[in-house]
Design goal:
The complex is a heterodimer.
Chain A lengths: L25 H19 L2 H26 L5 H23 L3 H8 L7 H8 L1 E6 L11 E8 L2 E8 L5 H6 L7 H16 L4 E7 L6 H5 L2 H13 L5 E10 H5 L6 E5 L3 E3 L3 H9 L5 H8 L3 H6 L5 E3 L10 H20 L3 H14 L4 E3 L2
Parallel strand pairs in A: 3-4, 4-5, 5-6, 5-7, 6-8
Antiparallel strand pairs in A: 1-2, 2-3
Chain B lengths: L1 E2 L2 H6 L3 H7 L3 E3 L6 E3 H6 L15 H8 L5 E4 L3 E3 L11 H12 L5 E8 L2 E8 L10 H17 L3 E7 L2 E2 L3 H20 L4 E9 L1 H4 L8 E4 L10 H8 L10 H6 L5 E2 L2 H15 L2
Helix pairs in contact in B: 6-7
The structure holds zinc ion.
Zinc ion (ZN) binds next to loops of chain B.
Chain lengths: ~375, ~280
């Protein structure tokens, strides 16, 4: 099975600055890159679609400029108003055209949009009576992960979510949504509370990754993640995970072993960031669009690879345009999935969870 | 998290390779002394002068751990389908072909059934020379089958890690192997079958963040690089030089992250002793 490519990077690859490091192979690399790019474009066979999308974007910009001029003009008559309406209609249809063709890098930007709803934004709109639980009982409290009790449509539930922030001070406080080991240990602690009192668990994933810091290594970042993977696999309550923004590798997976893994339409889920992949594999961080495409990180990609269960639609333009509408769409999906899981006896549920991950991502052939 | 070090694959030759190819002697990176190759071999590829543990390949590891170098391999015929059709400056499929030709393996791990000090064991031995020992769908499946076989036959499991982590060229497919293996280890744990994790140089990224840290005992060879994030990534993040010895076995032991650091010559007897303790 192969994920289809729907990229527009064919229009972007020529723009980025060329190889910046690695004196040894610069000349050869330049040449190779151009070969790789043309091979990618040929493989994707989407050149025509890419052109259309580029044209749509350019036209959109032009019309928006015209429109703002018209709207600023004094003394509007009927004629002008008709023109403005026509332009508005055209803008809408172009927006749809552009949005339907969002490529992996555009999705990455949407997933990281500063106005994108974060865990607490969803919690306050989807749940009631949220009572936060702090601390790992061993080292400290990690604000990059929030956990707590809440009610979901009257039902008692436990919540775990990565938490990002918007202003500088808060961003630092939340460590940009990158947890330390104590964050994962706090998460495990509340999972066990949920299990003891038989309450379903909801997790919300939005992290660039587990924090790669000195203290994190000293305190066993790898051990904390590993333990969560093992314990979530056998936790005796229903678990629903939603990738709401960035699903950053092991730091995401550590709270994402679930009976249902949902991905928001414009979220991403990857083993490494596109920038990280680009600087390692292409030796050039500006190849991030190419890397994003190659890594297969969009909700559609993950769904086609069988690594997530379903995709949650977002309001037109993305979740950042309307937090309430995004929360409503997500709540609807959570409700449906929870109802299905609550019907299953717990041993069957845990078996089904095991079998899902056991059969997931089996891409190998048997040599004879 | 993900593996890939450019210098490991293309431009540099690993210390291991030098051992094999450079005539009768080798320069130790630990003490900079010239050592006779024969002395190194007689000493299990450990420098007799400074105790530096040279990297060894998966087969040499099996020979050192299993009685009389006798074992059967299983799940040894799986190879990657290149699920993302990944291509960067080089295609992943050509990297795979090269690695297969160089190692004689289909991917970066060997599963073996044999005996350790007379006790039946199952060993998964990772091969660092195969694309940095990175874990994609094949490594994930082969290790999972070792876990399942251990559970089914109630045979103690030993996994010897030597890996840079998840295999970037299989993207999220490689990430999901962490989930699969950890879930299988949960079942092995519930079945109360012993699992000893042996961490060797290097063990980083998604391998450390899954099975390598989930043993009933996690033991490491001296001086092995062990961590979640790579040292360069950490240096870039915190913008300072890392202290000497950071992320080495002894550092992890000091911080309570390992059960023991065991020299190669003592490894077999340490594991044998642990299995006696754990045997039903
Ligand atoms: Zn030496």
């Amino acid at each position: 099975m192969r994920a289809s490519h729907h990229s527009a990077f064919g229009v972007q690859v020529t723009s980025g600055s060329r190889v910046v490091n690695v004196g040894l192979v610069v000349t050869g690399t330049d040449f190779l890159l151009s070969m790789v790019e043309s091979r990618w474009a040929a493989r994707n066979g989407d050149a025509r679609k890419m052109d259309l999308q580029l044209k749509a974007r350019q036209e959109l910009e032009k019309i928006e400029q015209q429109l703002s001029r018209l709207q600023a003009a004094p003394g509007q008559n009927d004629d002008l108003r008709t023109q403005i309406k026509q332009l508005n209609d055209r803008i809408d249809s172009l927006r749809i055209e552009v949005s339907a063709n969002h490529d992996a890098w555009q999705r990455t930007e949407l997933a990281r949009h500063p106005q994108r709803p974060y865990a607490l934004d969803y919690i306050e709109r989807i749940f009631t009576d949220f009572s936060e639980i702090h601390g790992d009982r061993g080292f400290g409290d990690d604000p990059a992960i929030v956990t707590g009790m809440a009610r979901f449509q009257g039902q008692e539930v436990m919540i775990i979510g990565h938490q990002k922030a918007r202003d500088t001070k808060q961003k630092v406080y939340r460590n940009f949504g990158m947890p330390n080991p104590e964050g994962y240990r706090k998460a495990l602690r509340v999972m066990k509370i949920a299990e003891k009192f038989r309450r379903p668990l909801f997790t919300f994933v939005d992290t660039p990754g587990a924090y790669p810091g000195l203290g994190a290594e000293e305190r066993g970042q790898a051990e904390a993640i590993a333990r969560n993977l093992r314990e979530m696999a056998r936790l005796q309550v229903p678990i629903i995970t939603t990738i709401t923004g960035e699903g950053g590798s092991g730091g995401a997976l550590a709270i994402a072993i679930a009976d249902r893994v949902l991905m928001m339409e414009n979220s991403i889920y990857s083993v490494i960031s596109p920038e990280g992949c680009a600087s390692i594999m292409w030796r050039d961080a500006t190849k991030k669009e190419l890397a994003a495409q190659a890594l297969h990180i969009t909700a559609k990609d993950l769904s086609e690879l069988g690594c997530v269960d379903s995709i949650v639609p977002e309001p037109e333009g993305g979740a950042h345009t309307d937090h309430a509408a995004a929360a409503d769409l997500l709540a609807e999906s959570l409700k449906t999935n929870l109802a299905q899981l609550l019907k299953m006896p717990v041993p069957d549920l845990v078996d089904a969870r095991y079998n899902k991950f056991r059969k997931m991502a089996q891409f190998f052939r048997v040599e004879v | 998290m993900a593996w890939f070090k450019r210098e490991a694959g293309e431009l540099d030759t690993s210390g291991e390779k030098k051992v094999r190819t450079e005539g009768l002697w080798v320069k130790c990176e630990g003490c900079r002394q010239i050592i006779w190759k024969k002395d190194l071999e007689d000493n299990l590829q450990v420098c007799p002068k400074c105790n530096k543990h040279f990297r060894i390949d998966a087969r040499t590891r099996l020979a050192q751990l299993l009685d009389d170098d006798q074992y059967d391999t299983f799940a040894d015929n799986l190879s990657s389908t290149d699920p993302l059709q990944f291509s960067d400056l080089k295609s992943y499929s050509s990297r795979l072909e090269t690695a297969q030709a160089e190692t004689g393996l289909t991917d970066a791990v060997i599963n073996a059934r044999g005996k350790l000090n007379g006790q039946p064991v199952i060993v998964s031995s990772m091969e660092y020379a195969f694309i940095g020992g990175s874990m994609g769908a094949v490594v994930g499946e082969v290790i999972t089958r070792a876990i399942e076989e251990a559970q089914k036959t109630r045979t103690p499991l030993i996994i010897v890690s030597a890996s840079g982590g998840a295999r970037m060229m299989e993207g999220v497919v490689s990430l999901m192997q962490l989930a699969k293996i950890s879930a299988a280890l949960a079942r092995l744990d519930e079945a109360r079958v012993p699992y000893i994790s042996v961490l060797t140089d290097p063990t980083t990224g998604g391998v450390t963040a899954s099975f390598a840290m989930l043993g009933d005992l996690n033991v490491a060879e001296p001086g092995a690089l062990i961590g979640f994030a790579g040292p360069r990534v950490i240096e870039q993040t915190i913008r300072t030089k890392l202290p000497a010895g950071f992320q080495r076995s002894e550092f992890l032991l000091e911080h309570g992250m390992l059960d023991a650091v065991v020299s190669r010559k003592d490894l077999k007897s340490y594991i044998g002793r642990a299995l006696e303790f754990m045997a039903a």
